[in-house]
Amino acid sequence: MDKFVDKELSGWGCFRGSRGHIYRPETVSAIAAVLQSRQETSYIGRGLGRSYGDAALNRDRGVVLTQRINRFLSFEQDTGVLSCEAGVTLEEILKVFVPRGWFLPVTPGTKFVTIGGAVACDVHGKNHHQDGSLSNFVLDLELLLANGQQTRVSRDENPDLFWATVGGMGLTGMILSVSLKLRPLETAFISVQYQRTPDLDETMRLLEEEDQDYTYSVAWVDGLAGGRSLGRSVLIRGNHAVVDDLSREQATQPLELVPRLSLTVPPQFPDLVLNRFSMRAFNSLYYRRLGQKPVNRVIDYDRFFYPLDSLRKWNRMYGKRGFIQYQCVFPPETSRAALVEVLSRLRQAKLPLFLVVLKRFGAETGSLSFPMSGYTLALDMPMLGGQLLSLLQELDQWVIDQGGRVYLAKDACLSAEAFRAMYPRFRQWQRIKTEVDPQNLFSSDLSRRLRITGVED
Ligand SMILES: Cc1cc2nc3c(=O)[nH]c(=O)nc-3n(C[C@H](O)[C@H](O)[C@H](O)COP(=O)(O)OP(=O)(O)OC[C@H]3O[C@@H](n4cnc5c(N)ncnc54)[C@H](O)[C@@H]3O)c2cc1C
Fold first, then answer.
1. DSSP assignment of 351-416, as one string?
2. Domain limits of the chain?
3. Whose CA is nearest to atom 3 of ligand 1?
């Protein structure tokens, strides 16, 4: 009998938690033993629980933590090919490989995720417009299937299963290990340019005309600005710095970081702090601290990619009710009108929008992967109850009407019908799921909510 702990879990948004039976295997063979025991009707893998909604939850069923399956397996210094177990975190990869001159090929906005979780969500980063999603750099995966078989999948070996697994939200099997190609690096710094834009049109114009000059590009949008200022932004764009770009002090140890002070938000943080007035003041200050001219800086990668990571448990700032991150993407032809509509509706709803981020995406990848060519908008909103849920439903319909979709790794509210309308390649994905997991041994709160199963209802 495998031991489990019955525990309340939630995603990063702390909304829609559920009790699960938590297993914490220490080895790959122990994972296989947990699954083979069939003690639970279903299991789901869980990395560091940084997906926002219910993707890594499995109410009253098995949740398999991968944190202890975290060994580096091999590394080729001349090619940058790293092979590691699925529970290795991005933080651990950076710590070991940046000093050797290698960087993650794609990184989300936090380093506190596992590589298995990142592959299962096929994460995108600030370089998606140039490099696409993480799966573009994954060479192969070792996957544990529902029938207990361990199999290698790649673009050449079992490619359909490979493309169903990247972005497949853990529903095709347990990812045991990942081989991926890292990016060579001369320094641990990024040459960044910050530039203010007065409105959405100028934001989009600059992103479209100049994105090819920057490996990393994103727009922080003042979500509370309206009228002619709707969509006014601070563009944050950067390239990896070479030694010549560094200050004398930075150049003494170009691949080393000065450790950052990290603070932890206490559990009883008052949720009144993040309100519409404090957010308006913050947004205005952030926007106005820049003048008309672009500002150039050379900052270390940690400050550039992971500004929120130094504030541990920052999700507590939203209080007990939690929060929602809504991330959607629109194809190029509908993007402008769609973005105006979404930003206007959110403004009218008078929500305290904390973070609104706009970015251009490149081509799409896995059959359930989120990115598609066009514009993606991500925004954080405190969970304010029924009114917010009906607004999100309206937004979902708007996203469908404009040919877009919502990101499953952030989602907590989508309906099964809306999911089907947004992910036209679901049927293709479902054929693979039916082949490898007809009994839905791998399922989650998300998969049941969206009826993402192997057999059609
Ligand atoms: C501050 C912040 C910023 C973020 N920025 C971005 C961003 O810029 N771009 C982006 O794409 N995402 C972003 N995310 C989302 C986050 O990167 C993804 O949800 C990430 O994959 C979570 O990794 P995890 O290890 O915490 O996985 P979990 O949240 O624990 O799990 C996520 C999914 O992966 C599955 N899974 C986990 N491990 C395995 C495994 N070994 N085998 C099979 N399935 C597995 C789970 O079942 C679940 O479906 C952000 C999240 C936060 C909190």
1. -----EEEEEE----STT----SEEEEEEEEE---HHHHHHHHHHHHHHHHTT-EE-TTT-SS--H
2. 72-185, 189-419
3. 109
Q: Domain 72-185: which topology? A: 3.30.465
What is the CA angle 254-258-261, rounded to 5? 160
The top-level CATH class assigned to 189-419 is alpha beta
Measured from CB, residues less than 6 Å from any atom of ligand 1 are: 12, 44-51, 55-56, 66, 86, 108-110, 113-114, 116-118, 120-121, 123-125, 169-170, 174-175, 308, 409, 444
What string of pLDDT tens digits covers the 457 residues of the chain? 578 899 999 999 998 899 999 999 999 999 999 999 999 999 999 999 999 999 999 999 999 999 999 999 999 999 999 999 999 999 999 999 999 999 999 999 999 999 999 999 999 999 999 999 999 999 999 999 999 999 999 999 999 999 999 999 999 999 999 999 999 999 999 999 999 999 999 999 999 999 999 999 999 999 889 999 999 999 999 999 999 999 999 999 999 988 887 888 877 666 656 666 666 667 777 777 788 899 999 999 999 999 999 988 888 888 888 999 999 999 999 999 999 999 999 988 888 777 899 999 999 999 999 999 999 999 998 888 888 899 999 999 999 999 999 999 999 999 999 999 999 999 999 999 999 999 999 999 999 999 999 876 5
Q: State the closest ligand 1 atom to the C-alpha of 308, by its place in the atom list counted from 1.
A: 1
What CA–CA distances, in Å, run from 392 to 28, 51, 344, 383?
Answer: 40, 18, 14, 11
Whether the model clears a pTM of 0.70, i.e. scores above it, the answer is: yes
